[in-house]
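Standup notes
- DV: blocked on the single-chain target, sequence here:
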Amino acid sequence: MSGGNGSARSPFHGGIILSYTEIHDVNICWRTLAARDTRVYKKGAKIPAGTDLNYLLKGCVRLTAITRDGVEKIIWYLKDNTIFNETPVFTQASLATVPLPPAVASLSSRARETSLAPVFANYCTHDSLVGRIPFETAVAAGRANPELILNLCCSFGLKVSLLACKMTNEQIASTRQRVFGYLATRLKNTEEAGVIQLDSNFQDLASYLAVHRVSLYRTLDAAREQGLLDYSARGKSSAFSTRRPFSGKWSATDASASEENRQQGPGASEERSETGQQG
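- DV (later): unblocked, structure below
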């Protein structure tokens, strides 16, 4: 995905693979404005939401949803030249001028009082340089240059589309399909065997893919036995070595993936709902 010309590309050209693509370089036209007020956040730090737009100049940030009973779900990963925190900022601003209908506002209020309403937080997975764009500054810049607002709309639409694809795949795709689809996004060339280094452990990976950690290990062990890949995990990192190019064996339409869905049966969705509860 490239944002050099101020636009964000549509994600609907890669099926399940695009569900796990890292978002980057979609808001380059905002970089100069964001560079005026910057701060360095260390790996593992939580970035305050605040009332301003945040811009990731360098590093990696993950969006995590946390329920009141402590269950965590990784939503996506963002990299360089990406704006984040725009949803709460613009939602709050819009409520001041266009209030929600009473029935919707009441529903929203009740949802916040239950454990079903998660809290969203952005955490740095690497040391990161983050710029701050005050809301008023963003509005003024957008009035002076409408292309900035168009870019923001495009990148926001991209995030919504990716999230929709990811949610759909979590309901209909097998563990095998999700794992291989994710690994495909981390390979530089799917036509060749390669090595994938991740700055995340298997617990984080299971949360991101919405699979049970036991199912993740079983899928990887089966792939290892089939001679497709090897893997290792150490502390907060993990590594994968593919032994052959991505082909029919890795395909989301692979017969073995369909067989996995059949064998999982009705209990599969229950297993997936446990994601994030395993230590």
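- Follow-up: The radius of gyration is 20 Å.
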